[in-house]
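Researcher: Please translate sequence to structure tokens.
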Amino acid sequence: MNPKPLTTVIAGAAALLTLAGCSASPDPKATTEPKTTPTAPMAAKDVRTPDAKADVACTDGKATVEQSNHEVTLAGACASVVVSANNAIVHLGDVKDLTVTGGLTRVIVDTADTVIVSGSGNDVLWQVEKPVNVDDRGEQNFVQKAAKG
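Model: Translation complete:
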């Protein structure tokens, strides 16, 4: 028997197996990052409360919350509220239109007809009734019922 044809067949098979191994199995290092599911917001008792406090008034049916790093309260109802504060906790009554443009802010609202969130990392928690319209244009925001406790 002539060893040359057998050597050629073995070399060809080895080359095919090598190529098949490279193209058939995915590179374990080339995997995509897994999508993470955000966890529910912490209960109010577990959230750090800023030391600075402020009150905001509703004038002619409008209010703006700009106090970053504050715990802000707007007593009563207001037709339109814009929250541009960052790293704040905001307490609201009944609101028709709520817009949150700030970031890392927790807004607790009794009720709101429309909620628009364009900032990121915010919790918008409704206490009484779910908003009719929610438009989340930011990232990592929560708009949901406030947790008990």
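Researcher: Any highlights?
Model: The radius of gyration is 28 Å.
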